[in-house]
Amino acid sequence: QVQLVESGGGWVQPGGSLRLSCAASGRTFGSYAMGWFRQAPGKEREFVAAIRWTVGIAYYADSVKGRFAISRDSAKNTVYLHLNSLKPEDTAVYYCAAMAAPGPIATSDYDYWGRGTQVTVSS
Description:
By secondary structure, the protein is an all-beta fold.
């Protein structure tokens, strides 16, 4: 079993930045990929970004490409999401997820999920 704990959410003004962290613990961690998803009120959960753990290849949703960056620290079993140039439409609960074996990166077909961290962008 893998536990994922997100942190770093909060309130920020439009144009601001945040860094989300997701720490993985539990059994020896060796996921194929880790991703970030978000869900805004009244909307479905959507893919934001993901990174293949061993090779470090990153994937992004078009809506965040050029503004968000995903990275990982293998020694700490932690994945980060750097949110820049934030917009009010980025307001959502952000979830971290881990995929144990190769599969479609941008779908919700991940094996483990965190509880989420709230990001609010408003003036």
